[in-house]
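Schema walk-through. Below, the input block comes first and the output block second. Nothing else is stored per chain. Lengths vary across the set, and this one has 259 residues.
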Amino acid sequence: CRHDHMQKILILVGSIFVMHSAYAGVLEPKRTDPGAIKVDKNFRLETDLGYLVNNSSSKNGSSKQDNLTAHILFQKKSGDWGQELISDVVSTHGNSSDQNIERYYVSGKILHRGENIVYRFGKITAEKDLTSIFDHQITTSMGWGIDVLKSDDVSLSLEMGGGYRYSRMKDSEDEKATHEGTGMLAGFYTYKISPDIKFNQDISFELGKDSQILRSRSALSADLTKKISAVASYSLKNVQADKGDNRDSLLSLGLRYRY
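--- output ---
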């Protein structure tokens, strides 16, 4: 049908747009340390592994055991171009299957900086969330960003854009899917409390006709060695959709490895 053809074309274009950046290039804004990328090192890799310390809440109750979360950040730069890949995995298993939380999220993004503080970006994301009413969602977007603050100790970047979202409903006999245009607002804040302690806040809001999604991740890290840090993070995802709402919040403690 017409919608399916449009979906495939947009996803293909977004995928090519992201993959092209593998030959180009770290994305601003830098999520955790404004000075982490040296002149002689044009890429950055961070991996977080944590244990969820709260009773992970979801629409079906709370999960109290076997709670793990992982977060990966990869950035690469080349001249005025940048590339970013983010992956998140959340797995909790409670006393019953209805209380389980499983979420897989991947985001690819490219950026071109033509001016000192203003940049353009393209982004594609895919997510599968067991607690959501959607089996999976794929979103492509393009927009502009601006560095409001940028120093060795503090940085703040804001982004605005628009795009397209494909959502496949869960447990649908006719494999019903929704197609909608989206608007996006995002902010990324980093503050270096001391040479060894850093705080960062990422927040985004996606607005569509059929669903609205708020994502937030706050993290406090303390360096233990040059490559290993202790990390405490709090993640929130709130979905408001015509077919049903969902909200989960996750507090984790873990370690970060930087390469």
